[in-house]
Amino acid sequence: MKHLKRIMTIIVALTIVALMIPISAMAATDTVDFEDGNYDAFFLRMDSDSDNSILSVVELNGSKALKVDVQDANKTPKIQIQVSDLVNSKKLDQIETIELDLVIENPENSPVGENYGGIGNFGEGHYPNWSQGEDWSIIDSEKSISSVTKLSRTFSKASEKFRNNVKSSYVLMKWMGNTNDMYIDNVRFLDKDGNPIELKVAEAEAMANTADDSIDNANDNTADDSTDNANDNTAEELPETGNNILIIIFIAVAAVIILFCVIIFMKKSRLNKSNS
């Protein structure tokens, strides 16, 4: 009986490890790709000339991106990226470069035309505490939605670099002049050698968001019999479903092992009784 208890204890411990597999996979990342729908570290910076843009995560080119819905052509949309919420506070001083994908769309279905903007960094420990890189430009006189442009800006001077344990952020801006929308994706922070800095992940919050999404998707699937929606939902759930299948298989194997041990134990017990 003691041996059986030990075996069951080991199996329970292994099951707990299996349940932690999704957390481990989720934590190992260096790119903000918005696939989980979370953009808590991205918000509007509201100055006197700032546009009151609307932020949301949407589908774009087969993946998700942060949409900046610009409201006023005479205002500047400013998206503050709170780096200190995304990167371990002890690694902030390693960051020198921000890299991201940017797409511009004309909501009136006309060519996007000329679009200009800038990226600056902002840290409470800086003096001065604002630094701005060279302007970026996206120009297209034919398409209503631009191709993906990869922006990269480096801030390597002592007065520009972030400091550990200090609130730090980048600000992405599009200069006033039109109401073209922006799409932001694949945000990364690089060190002086161009290596990406690993992100910290609020595991509890991310798991809660995943659970909420699963409930919403389940309700949508029940209410909506559309084949297309069913296919989309299946595709979105694949990563989570894959983890669940591994866990189910693991538990099933553990159950078989337990059953096998019980059978052996019962046979040994009968054999001992017959010998006695």
From TrEMBL:
Task: Outline the segment boundaries, as ranges, of region: Disordered.
Answer: 210-236
Q: Could you tell me what this protein is called?
A: LPXTG-motif cell wall-anchored protein
Asked if Transmembrane helix is a keyword of the record, the answer is yes
Q: Which organism is it from?
A: Mobilitalea sibirica
> Superkingdom of this entry's organism?
Bacteria
Q: Where are the transmembrane segments?
A: 245-266
- Has the keyword NADP been applied to this entry? no
User: Which residues belong to the signal peptide in this entry?
Assistant: 1-27
List keywords of the entry alphabetically: Membrane, Signal, Transmembrane, Transmembrane helix
Q: Sorted alphabetically, which Gene3D superfamilies does this protein's record hold?
A: Galactose-binding domain-like
Phylogenetic placement of the source organism:
Bacteria, Bacillati, Bacillota, Clostridia, Lachnospirales
Locate the compositionally biased regions of type Low complexity: 210-221
